[in-house]
């Protein structure tokens, strides 16, 4: 058997769990007049990175569906209601296709669903703003099936500083409320997700949590100096020392420095042309210039091998037990790497890892074993407290 076929066979045999897929917001942006999604992900879809047929092709099993709360909800209100509505929607999607999809509120449910040929929807809230300012909402979302919460997103919130505020945050890490939130998440059995946090907030969350934490969709800053959404080596070590898992994001900007360089060049070109023409940023002419520039200078894409490089780096730094996959499918737009464009293509990554000498047992840990271990540990800790 060649390694490509071995990768495909392995994907069919083991459980693949992805820490971050943005299907819920993708569906929400295309709701029909009746409030139901106009896109049916139980069938092959023209757009997006996830649907059931492609999941089957890729041997894919468990999607942590991102219950994404945009930062503006922190000030305008309605964050909890939005989170509840997205959870409702994903439950309805699963109910409408019971032979294809099922909710997974525990590791055991995820395993059972996979054994019966169903793709699981696990739930992770992206942006703890959904809690608003009420600690009791942690328990509310645990009861709704949420199994991780990313403490913040693109801006500081009531819980934590965001990576975007690096070094000049509101709280110098976690807020006093945020520290209570971490303790309550431990108590009720929700994984603490440190993706999107500032370095100091990650450090504090790891120290405070009594159980391992995850970074659901963050790659290694070693390869992308200056890209602060990725995690530096010292904090990968801290996450691993506590038993946690860093789950590699597939977005090209997370994988190689070429995208940051490209964006700087694009911004400079837009600014220079706009000034020369005397145009504002929002003018139709500027939009047309942007589109022509991107056509002539396409975004430089990473390759599946770059994802493997990030896996390699974490493994060399802290060992095979502390790395996973958090693709950000349906969240990073057209920037996905060559060879990992959607959920049908996980076997391509397995092929590269096999070429690099990873055993099938190693790849099973990367694919699901490591995040399942953390999830189970968090479940057990909460059960002991009850």
Task: Describe what this molecule looks like in 3D.
It contains 16 helices and nine strands. Strands 1, 2, 3, 4, 5 and 6 form a six-stranded parallel β-sheet that branches. Strands 7-8-9 form a three-stranded parallel β-sheet. α1 packs across α15 and α14 packs across α15. The radius of gyration is 20 Å and the shape is globular. The model has no long low-confidence stretch (mean pLDDT 96).
Provide a short characterization of the protein structure.
The chain has 386 residues and is an alpha/beta fold.
User: Radius of gyration in whole Å, from Cα?
Assistant: 20 Å
Portion of residues in helices? 40-55%
Order of helices and strands: HEHHEHHEHEHEHEHEHEHHHHEHH
The residue ranges in which pLDDT falls below 50 over 5 or more consecutive positions are: none
Structural class: alpha/beta
What is the subunit arrangement here?
single chain
The counted number of beta strands is: 9
Query: Which percent band covers the strand fraction?
Result: 5-15%
**Could you give the distance between the termini?**
50 Å
What is the count of helical runs?
Answer: 16
- Average pLDDT number: 96
* Sheet of most strands: 6 strands, parallel
Shape: globular
List the helices and strands and how they pair.
Layout: H1 3-13, E1 17-21, H2 23-28, H3 52-57, E2 62-68, H4 73-76, H5 79-96, E3 101-103, H6 107-115, E4 119-126, H7 136-143, E5 146-150, H8 176-188, E6 191-193, H9 199-208, E7 214-215, H10 233-241, E8 245-248, H11 252-255, H12 258-277, H13 284-296, H14 304-318, E9 323-325, H15 346-355, H16 360-385
Parallel strand pairs: 1-2, 2-4, 3-4, 4-5, 5-6, 7-8, 8-9
Helix pairs in contact: 1-15, 12-13, 14-15
């Amino acid at each position: 058997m060649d390694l490509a076929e071995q990768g495909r066979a392995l994907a069919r045999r083991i459980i693949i769990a992805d820490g971050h897929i943005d299907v819920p917001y993708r569906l929400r942006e295309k709701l029909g007049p009746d409030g139901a999604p106009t896109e049916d992900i139980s069938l092959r879809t023209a757009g997006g990175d996830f649907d059931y047929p492609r999941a089957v092709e890729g041997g894919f099993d468990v999607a942590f569906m991102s219950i994404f709360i945009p930062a503006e909800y922190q000030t305008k209100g309605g964050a909890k209601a939005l989170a509840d509505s997205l959870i409702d929607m994903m439950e309805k999607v699963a109910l409408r296709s019971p032979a294809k999809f099922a909710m997974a509120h525990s590791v055991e449910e995820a395993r059972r669903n996979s054994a019966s040929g169903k793709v699981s929807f696990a739930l992770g809230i992206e942006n703890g703003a959904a809690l608003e300012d009420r600690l009791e909402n942690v328990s509310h979302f645990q009861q709704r099936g949420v199994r991780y919460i990313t403490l913040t997103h693109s801006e500081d919130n009531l819980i934590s500083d965001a990576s975007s505020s690096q070094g000049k945050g509101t709280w110098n890490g976690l807020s006093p409320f945020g520290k209570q939130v971490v303790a309550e998440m431990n108590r009720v059995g929700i994984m603490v997700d440190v993706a999107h946090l500032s370095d100091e907030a990650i450090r504090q969350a790891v120290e405070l949590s009594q159980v391992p934490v995850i970074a659901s969709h963050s790659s290694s800053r070693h390869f992308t100096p200056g890209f602060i959404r990725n995690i530096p080596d010292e904090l990968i070590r801290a996450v691993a020392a506590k038993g946690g898992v860093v789950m590699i994001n597939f977005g090209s900007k997370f994988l190689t420095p070429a995208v940051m360089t490209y964006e700087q060049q694009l911004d400079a070109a837009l600014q220079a042309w706009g000034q020369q023409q005397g145009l504002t940023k929002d003018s139709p002419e500027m939009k047309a210039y942007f589109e022509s520039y991107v056509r002539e200078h396409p975004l430089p894409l990473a390759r599946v091998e770059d994802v493997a490089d990030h896996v390699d780096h974490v493994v060399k730094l802290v060992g095979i037990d502390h790395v996973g996959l958090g693709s950000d499918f349906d969240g990073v737009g057209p920037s996905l790497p060559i060879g990992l464009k959607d959920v049908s293509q996980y076997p391509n990554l397995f092929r590269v890892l096999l070429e690099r000498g990873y055993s099938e047992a190693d790849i099973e840990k990367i694919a699901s074993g490591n995040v399942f271990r953390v999830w189970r540990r968090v479940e057990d800790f909460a059960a002991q407290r009850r």
